[in-house]
Amino acid sequence: MQIYWPKIKRIIEETPEVKTYLLDRPEDFTWEEGSHTHFALEGFNAGDTPNRSLIRHMSISTLPHENAIGITTRIKEQCSEFKSILNNLEVGKEVAIFKTHSNVPLKREGKNIYLLSAGVGLATFRPLVLSYLDRTDNVNQIHSLNIDSSKDFLFTDIFKTTPEKNFTAQFVDNREDYYAEVKNLAADKDGLFYIVGSDEFLLQNIEILRAQGITPEQMMLDKREKELPKFLSFDLTI
């Protein structure tokens, strides 16, 4: 297993609680849209076994052509040891990345795509939208729906409705409006539905989509293949 130790080249305060850490991109490090990586702090591999409290799975919020590995995360005032250490890191400090993989690459199958996310989960979708806006072939349209109760919506420079590209972006700040809109979007019985958020958020979306006749094959989750059955099983009970 190859472990990269890139330096933090820039820290962006996206909102009062959300930061993006832009890391130097090693020459031989590449990825595709929808990728996540193991993101670890100094000392995680100092002992005989990895210190898992210093490791997190993080989505990469940038594309290779941006020449930086972007890690976007929410850091609240009351946070874990990992987030507390991360919050105090400065430009020039090294972090570790390894085991990079994409569970949700952009499917170009000539269909409508719906991106359903909660809060900072939007970071997973940022590269998909950039990839689509750069090249729209074999995608009919994309609609992004994000719920964030903080009302500090992310990446509004990219997630903005662009009619000429058949891209629409919608933000809501409460569950009632969000799930009502999910039901409306599920009227498209041939669409592809990407879902990113907590396990609870995934299950709630899946329950609504399936009640509207959307099949598991139409749902793309940011989960390893072996984890999908516990979310998409036909006899799933919530």
TrEMBL record:
InterPro entries reported in the protein's UniProt record: FNR_nucleotide-bd (IPR039261), Riboflavin_synthase-like_b-brl (IPR017938)
Kindly provide the name given to this protein in its UniProt entry: Dihydropteridine reductase
